[in-house]
Amino acid sequence: MRLKEKIIEKILAACALVTVLTTVGIILILAIEAFSFFGEVSIVEFATSTQWTPLFTQKNYGILPLLSGTALTAFIAIAVALPTGIIIAVYLNEYAPKKVKKVLKPMLEILAVVPTVVYGFFALMIVTPILQSFIPGLSGFNALSPGIVMGIMIIPFVSSLSEDALSAVPDSLRQASFGMGSTKFQTAFKVMVPAASSGIIVSAILAISRAIGETMIVAIAAGSQPRFTFDPMVPIQTITSYIVQISMGDVPHGSIAYQTIFAAGITLFVFTFILNNISYWIKARYQQKYE
To answer: What is the pTM of this model?
Structure first.
């Protein structure tokens, strides 16, 4: 038995080590290639310039247009997914009959397994024309349409995890709230949601990370035009869609234009790392508040 336990322990340690080494390997590749890029391009220009034209005759390497496009679409997505997902989670946990919950929750999770290419064409061919019918100035390619569709796509991440967090709240809190004369609505949003805030914040972290890393929806429907703007009605380009554009094979390997994908990739990694740490800090503050 001791031998078997040691073997199992070694296997588990090896699995954990594989994930760590994979992460370290990705970071090293990004860092090495990005270091070569920054040997040719000023990091000050990269971080402050509002022009990104590495494939044009007049070359500029400012990452801000890609960052603004990524942030804009992610913000629209989370603005759609977070309130919708929380409301769905509250309904499933507090109001829905068990039979309805058993049917509705798996149906919601189907949204997460639909291919993102399908979402991209849905945004371009369905959502954009609908939006243009009451927003005349909306471009055929824009940030609003893919942002909304990304929000729909990540709703299951928020609703499912938030519902699990609400289900984990002790029933004694609910009964105590009813005992104090609170209504079901007051109990749901003033007792249950705050008590499950740490789990809800974790779901928001996952949803934001998923939105930032999304590629095909923005590549198809956003227009692939890097510009430093926060106007959701015009074409934009995100970091991930730019990486896809360069990775198609038209740019020679080893060139500065090709190395931009590694500079953009490590920027996305840093951006996501900072965002996740901010989210974890917010999570810690909520936990301290409600402990």
So the answer is: 0.85
